[in-house]
Amino acid sequence: MLQEFKDFIAKGNVMDLAVGIIIGAAFTAIVSSLVSDLINPVIGLVLGGVDFTSMYVVLSGDVPADAGLDAARETGAAIFAYGAFITACINFLIIAFVVFMLVKFVNRIKSLAERPDDVAPEVVTGPSQLDVLLQIRDELAKK
Predict the structure, then answer these.
(1) What's the CATH code, domain 2-117?
(2) 55-96 pLDDT, tens per residue?
(3) Residue closest to 86 by CA, chosen among 48, 27, 35
């Protein structure tokens, strides 16, 4: 059983999956920073300086009016954090788009690698010796 497990781990697919998960985790951090540090401020500027990542609605409980999202969560009140959901949706769309572009790029490379090398075009060298002799014979036969 131990040998089967070693064979399973040694297969390329498992190693590719592990590398993909590690790179995906690092990429998620980059996308989260992109959204929170670059995209959200621009959207907030368009919305009049509002930081929508901390937008929420109190469903039940007492939360001070000027409390941020973290402070509202600490009070134990039931809140509807729609700003955090919007941020998560933006993160998802960016990650999905980048993964789509990456898969498209990899598929293009695979199709180029699988395509046979272009065959050199056939060079036209003119008629063969036999063709010339047959043509001479036919011309002599006409006379």
Answers:
(1) 1.10.1200.120
(2) 888 888 888 877 777 788 888 888 888 888 888 888 788 878
(3) 35
